[in-house]
Inverse folding.
């Protein structure tokens, strides 16, 4: 961004009238599993907690391939753009045998739709035969994971200011990878100067697994494997105690708060107010569309505001706090403060424009930001990324939407049929 403020507008390809609107930085999504929109609201898992939910869905996800990864990513990023999101991460941890180069397929979708993208090369190395949860044919060998991680970083990672694609490494969770993979992934990330991401302290089952398997709390385990530092952001972080919160904050760790998913899976309420007070970068994540189901970052901001009020008092959960989590908090998680998640000279200038008219906003006079988050549901009127309009007048600009939705229905039906008995 080269200018901000009052006065004559600088020369531009197009001027957008935002009269009667609220203009915010583009929202930043820091945790997602895009492929999961292929199994959205899948009946057999809708009333399950985390571990049972995973066991139900792994057999379906084993059919993921390059086409379904590309189409699900395209549709998921389109959904995010409609909610004012301009930057999204993705945690792609399923790599079925014979599925192909799924990460490159996702990146191609992001480039086509125009979203700023932070995919992660996720991994699982513990299958059912090793005492893990996933089937044997969706996990990878240790050396294969590290080799593929280095390859995709070399192929896709862009370190320049304003980069449209940056790659991170993301062993899925302590219960799906070996300790050695956590250690070696941390060493590789340090050598290649990329970020690290994983699921962490998501629910009581997660904590119990850590105590039973490693003999320690989740934060102690992360410290032991070299994951407590400022290049790490963690998904969920629902169950840290006060001591763990202080240690995470002192290390500059980031947290992806996923309120809808945490409620649907009955995981609990993340201590967002305490985490922020301790210095943790708290961003927002829509999580996978098989748990949160709706990939609306605006909705997650509203849920974050309401849950903060519920858990920490009415004054703690404000719309401005939630907006900060959805923008600068996410930028902190991704290591891009001053670049994304704000409208300032020198930032990339990604923008979301929100209409504040119609019956739902009647009476919103005193505070448009509180009105924006309290009076919806709403979608972005315009979403602009890197100078490119992705959403105009509440409609996706791309002419591919109907074709992509048709392909998505075909692929989703095939994936869900794959779980039926022969």
């Amino acid at each position: 961004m080269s200018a901000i403020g009052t006065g004559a507008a600088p020369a531009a390809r197009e001027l957008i009238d935002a009269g009667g609107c609220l203009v915010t930085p583009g929202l930043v999504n820091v945790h997602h599993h895009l492929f999961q929109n292929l199994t959205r609201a899948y009946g057999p898992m809708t009333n399950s907690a985390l571990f049972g939910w995973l066991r139900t869905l792994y057999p379906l996800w084993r059919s993921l391939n390059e086409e379904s990864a590309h189409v699900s990513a395209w549709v998921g990023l389109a959904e995010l753009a409609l909610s004012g999101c301009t930057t999204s991460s993705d945690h792609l941890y399923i790599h079925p045998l014979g599925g192909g180069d799924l990460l490159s397929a996702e990146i191609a979708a992001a480039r086509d739709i125009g979203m700023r993208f932070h995919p992660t090369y996720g991994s699982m190395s513990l299958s059912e035969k090793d005492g893990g949860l996933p089937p044997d044919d969706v996990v990878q060998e240790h050396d294969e994971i590290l080799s593929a991680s280095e390859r995709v970083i070399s192929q896709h990672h862009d370190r320049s200011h304003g980069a449209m694609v940056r790659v991170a490494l993301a062993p899925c969770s302590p219960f799906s990878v070996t300790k050695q993979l956590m250690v070696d992934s941390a060493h590789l990330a340090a050598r290649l100067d990329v970020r690290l991401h994983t699921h962490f302290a998501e629910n009581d089952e997660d904590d119990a697994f850590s105590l039973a398997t490693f003999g320690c709390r989740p934060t102690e385990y992360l410290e032991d494997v070299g994951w407590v530092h400022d290049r790490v952001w963690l998904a969920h972080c629902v169950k840290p105690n006060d001591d763990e919160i202080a240690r995470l904050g002192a290390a500059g760790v980031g947290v992806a708060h996923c309120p809808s998913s945490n409620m649907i899976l009955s995981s609990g309420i993340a201590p967002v107010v305490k985490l922020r007070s301790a210095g943790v970068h708290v961003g927002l994540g829509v999580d996978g569309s098989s748990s949160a189901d709706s990939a609306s970052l605006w909705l997650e901001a509203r849920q974050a505001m309401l849950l903060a009020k519920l858990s920490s008092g009415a004054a703690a959960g404000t719309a401005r706090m939630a907006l900060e989590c959805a923008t600068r908090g996410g930028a902190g998680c991704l290591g891009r403060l001053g670049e994304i998640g704000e409208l300032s000279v020198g930032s990339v200038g990604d923008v979301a424009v929100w209409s504040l008219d119609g019956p739902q906003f009647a009476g919103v006079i005193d505070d448009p930001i509180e009105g924006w988050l309290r009076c919806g549901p709403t979608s972005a009127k315009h979403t602009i990324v890197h100078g490119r309009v992705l959403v105009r007048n509440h409609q996706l600009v791309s002419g591919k939407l109907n074709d992509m939705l048709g392909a998505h229905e075909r692929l989703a039906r095939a994936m869900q049929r794959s779980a039926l008995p022969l």
Notes: The longest strand covers residues 85-92. The chain has one domain: 21-417. The CA atoms of residues 16 and 382 lie 9 Å apart.
